[in-house]
Design the sequence.
DNA sequence: GATGAATGAGCATTCATTCAT
DNA sequence: CATGAATGAATGCTCATTCAT
């Protein structure tokens, strides 16, 4: 990468990081482009060299952050050492829940975007051989694969929606208390498939 | 209700209906108070007699619409004729899914607000005796009741999140195809409790 | 007219007068809406209550000023006392030339808008009976009227274009020197019709 | 011309051609230097190597295009074969009108710049001997020459202004219908001189 | 209560211009 | 000569909010 290219990437990353801070502390609506560039220490016009508008940046940020979460789960959940598909998926989901619990600001930012849609994007970006879990999906026969996708979808949507409420509002109970029920529910769902 | 009171309610309802149209067609951010009052045919100042600001109106609208959905499900799902708790809850959820499928605009507006939080508000507003389903919850012993709430929470969050994706984007499959899996999943979840 | 209506008209007139000053001294492009409202002593938003943008105001101003010129010529040229159509039209044109010569700023502002198009607008706004000159046109037989319109068009376009150059640049000669030639030309044109 | 010089001229011509396209399709005000260089396929900085700013380019373009028109008329109107000064000038004016009628975009661009001012520039750029029509003017005695210039001025201004309205708006009649009247008027004007 | 003209802070966006490469 | 990333002043425009009628 040339020095110019490098500098460009730095500027963009800088803007995204700054925007994340502001979005999470003041909300998207109350954050102006002026706020972002001022804090990022670049000129206003520079913003428009990298993003169409505030919402463009926001969208890229959501995808980026959600991807990081899934990525991290695949790399640190230790699912590979486990045998059954149930155990593997549970391990991955637990890692995600753990990340979110330790970073409620990120959870609030992502809102309910911990969803199949984002997961799918990550899945498609990932090359074969990268993750055993993904490879299993990829190598399955078409009909079987569809079934597995639906199963995965169901589990992810449940985890995403439930974690939001449980972690951020403690309703109807805290994560600690809810986790066993969630585990049982996920196992039950997977058993039903 | 006096004629004056009636008139006030009319104005407010008018504003809310108009706002719903605009919010669903242009989005919350791109809808201004000017837009709303202009289309509603009232003066700008009038808006402030009924709502604090745009967000106040929006919030009231979300709660109102979500309540209507739950209300409708309690009144038209025919759950009372069924025997098992599983069957009752499934009937209620199916009614909600049916409403949302027939009104994707409403679904998009509510976003992922078909959730335990809203359900809880409806539950608390409802007097004893109104719904057998709620009464069962109310009359349960504390520990048992908590367990039932968690169960209900799990089911509602799953249905809310999954229906959003399935109905609005058709991902990973359409509602038609997904429904059997969802039914099985819900039954499995409830069995696990 | 109510007091509110009166006030509105005042605001609009004020904005137009101020804009005219700025347009003629700095040009349209270099005049900003901020400049106008600042000097007019009203808030920025007020501008948009009366005009769509700078160009909207400019257009209205051009029409308004050109109308005034034609109006003045009809009322002060004394054409009514004259007998022949040639003499009448010459008197009117002379009055216009006289106005423009005494107000080169206005002439520069109008540019080459002293034209048939504007004249026609004034003509159509004017009620029957208002001006003997217009009535003659109105009462002529269709074919005759068309011929008269073309004649009028030719004279006006010549006067408008020539006066611009002669008065503002003195090229190829000053108005004083040019006037006799112009008179002869107009008479010659009219004779040819 | 060296290869470097040639290349420079190419770049400049390229920029002017591109600008003409944009000026005629979007107008001068709404065309930015960014627009021009982007479409011309050169870097922003390059623009400033050839033009001071947008208006500089525009002015050069107007003069250039108007010159082409007069040039073309002198070369293709066949005026040289004609005998009387009236016929010669009419032939030249007819050629100009023909060009404008076939290129209304150009006419709109030139606006009312088909005028004595531009004609004069062309005249002065032209060397003696180039055009018989110009030579006649050049060789006339001073007082006679002034008279001829005024005559020429009158005819050109009339043609420029009238053609603009007649060709672009069809008001008060189309060119076809207007032409005979215009011819008569020009002959009448010239006879009066 | 209802109105809607007026406000002016606040914001997004553009764009001519520079200058290090 | 040519480039194009970066700048930031300038500007148009919006819109929530107020208040005299």
Sequence:
């Amino acid at each position: 990468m040339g020095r110019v290219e490098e500098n460009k990437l730095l500027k963009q990353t800088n803007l995204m990081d700054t925007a994340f801070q502001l979005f999470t502390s003041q909300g998207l609506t109350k954050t102006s482009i002026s706020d972002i560039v001022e804090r990022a220490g670049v000129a206003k016009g520079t913003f428009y060299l990298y993003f169409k508008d505030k919402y463009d940046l926001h969208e890229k940020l959501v995808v980026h952050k959600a991807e990081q979460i899934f990525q991290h789960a695949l790399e640190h959940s230790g699912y590979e050492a486990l045998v059954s598909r149930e155990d593997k998926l549970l391990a991955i989901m637990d890692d995600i829940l753990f990340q979110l619990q330790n970073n409620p600001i990120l959870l609030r930012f992502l809102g309910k975007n911990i969803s199949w849609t984002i997961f799918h994007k990550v899945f498609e970006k990932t090359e074969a051989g990268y993750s055993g879990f993904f490879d299993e999906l990829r190598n399955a026969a078409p009909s079987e694969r569809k079934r597995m996708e639906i199963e995965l979808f169901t589990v992810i949507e449940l985890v995403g929606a439930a974690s939001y409420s449980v972690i951020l509002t403690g309703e109807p109970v805290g994560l600690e208390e809810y986790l066993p029920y969630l585990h049982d529910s996920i196992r039950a769902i997977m058993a039903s498939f």
Notes: Chain C has a mean pLDDT of 92. Chains C and A do not touch (no CB pair under 8 Å). The CA atoms of residues 166 and 174 of chain C lie 5 Å apart. The longest helix of chain C spans residues 142-169.
